[in-house]
Q: What sequence folds into this?
């Protein structure tokens, strides 16, 4: 017996409401985040992730309130991402009741931020969120994957696999690996991306992007993921947490 | 209703511990006040992050004295995660050695495993006669998040003292997941984040240790 593979529903939150859009561009309302968090907890979710999709345009206080109310009634780990730019943002989220925060764009602009956060709050609560896609234009990166910003629309030319390794060096405790090519397609996880990142980091890797059917989950674990994250397939009831665990269990993967 | 103090020494998400204890019926205060922490029916010492950093914070609120004074009077203390680790003699993280409270001999050091931090839900092996794990099946999982741990239990058995009950977990190798030693209890995992299983453990502690 060892540590169980985690199944993590992600709630994209805009102004205090859960949304999920294909590639983050078409947002659809799917409910109250606090209620949904409680439902996922009851269904056996191993952790919850809240992603503040409109953090850049304000509503920060709303998100803190959502985190506080969720932590009042859900007793499993909660990660919050979106718009985390400074150690003070991390502090506010942890104080509101988050256990981990994920950092994305702000770290691309200034990687040292990850080290500062990890030193102050501990590696265990700093997650590096990497939005990766295959290089479409310009010079290819060594891994063929690059880091993107703006929900996958803007390439940075930074090698996504090297960036994950750099994040670990700087002290993050986990990599949230989002395939922007697979995101919204429901055609399966990007296994090559997971394998490449797994080879260069020994912190946990959460695979995200592309989950559409039960059979998509076991290959992601075989590719090296320690956890799987999905949003819309869970929100719209297309897949249940328990079903994902059953299919993993049948594949000899330990689950809770 | 048991009066529980969650010791606030600037470490981590104290609200989780507060809420989880309240959920199982405790009257909870989060404070760094010396007298309140000494006088409570039960004291919870949480902790996340680096060992040395937690010890600094703990020393700043005279945490070791609070713990020592409580234990001298047989008053229950529960350490959680780094709050358990600091109860041991010393911690070694990235070559930096720091003194702990020294309630038990032993060293907190980096666990040898392919993937660290050890993050997620794992099973534990509790000894028979355990109070904390009473009523919990052997396949019950608790939420862990740590890279360091106690890899060897060093307290020698003697006839003079009743040996503590030690619970183990495995990730890459075995490490201490829990200790029950009279009034002093500790878990490496986070009961406050372990859903219903964690609630059961906290309830066991409240009912049968704090009383």
A:
């Amino acid at each position: 017996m060892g540590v169980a593979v985690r199944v993590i529903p992600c709630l994209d939150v805009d102004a205090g409401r859960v949304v999920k859009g294909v590639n983050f561009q078409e947002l659809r309302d799917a409910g109250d985040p606090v209620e949904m968090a409680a439902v996922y907890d009851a269904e056996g979710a191993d952790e919850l992730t809240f992603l503040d999709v409109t953090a850049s345009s304000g509503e920060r206080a709303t998100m803190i309130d959502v985190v506080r109310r969720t932590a009042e009634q859900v007793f499993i780990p909660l990660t919050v991402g979106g718009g985390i730019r400074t150690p003070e943002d991390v502090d506010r989220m942890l104080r509101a009741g988050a256990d981990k925060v994920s950092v994305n764009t702000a770290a691309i602009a200034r990687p040292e931020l990850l080290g500062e956060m990890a030193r102050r709050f501990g590696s265990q609560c700093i997650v590096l969120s990497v939005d990766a896609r295959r290089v479409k234009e310009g010079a290819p990166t060594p891994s063929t994957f690059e880091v993107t910003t703006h929900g996958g629309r803007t390439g940075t030319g930074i090698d996504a696999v090297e960036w994950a390794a750099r994040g670990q060096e700087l002290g993050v405790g986990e990599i949230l690996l989002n395939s922007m090519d697979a995101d919204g397609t429901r055609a399966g996880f990007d296994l090559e991306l997971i394998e490449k990142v797994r080879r260069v980091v020994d912190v946990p890797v959460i695979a995200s992007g592309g989950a559409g059917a039960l059979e998509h989950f076991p290959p992601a674990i075989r590719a090296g993921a320690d956890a799987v994250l999905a949003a819309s397939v869970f929100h719209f009831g297309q897949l249940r947490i328990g079903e994902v665990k059953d299919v993993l269990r049948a594949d000899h993967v330990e689950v809770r | 209703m048991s009066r529980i103090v969650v010791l606030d020494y600037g470490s981590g998400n104290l609200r989780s511990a507060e809420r989880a204890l309240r959920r199982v019926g405790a009257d909870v205060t989060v404070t760094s006040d010396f007298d309140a922490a000494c006088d409570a029916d039960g004291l919870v010492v949480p902790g996340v992050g680096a060992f040395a950093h937690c010890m600094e914070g703990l020393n700043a609120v005279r945490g070791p004295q609070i713990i020592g004074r409580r234990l001298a009077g047989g008053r229950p203390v529960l350490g959680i995660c780094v709050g358990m680790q600091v109860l041991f003699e010393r911690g070694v993280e990235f070559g930096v050695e720091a003194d702990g409270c020294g309630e038990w001999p032993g060293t907190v050091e980096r666990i040898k495993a392919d993937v660290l931090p050890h993050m997620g839900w794992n099973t534990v092996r509790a000894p028979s006669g355990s109070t904390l794990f009473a009523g919990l099946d052997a396949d019950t999982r608790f939420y862990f998040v740590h890279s360091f741990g106690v890899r060897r239990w060093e307290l020698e058995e003697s006839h003079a003292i009743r040996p503590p009950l030690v619970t183990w977990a495995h990730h890459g190798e075995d490490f201490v997941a829990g200790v029950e030693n009279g009034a002093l209890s500790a878990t490496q995992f986070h009961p406050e984040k372990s859903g219903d299983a964690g609630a059961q453990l906290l309830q066991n502690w409240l009912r049968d240790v704090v009383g």
Observations:
- The two ends of chain A are 11 Å apart (CA to CA).
- The longest strand of chain A covers residues 6-14.
- Confidence is low (pLDDT under 50) at residues 21-29 of chain A.
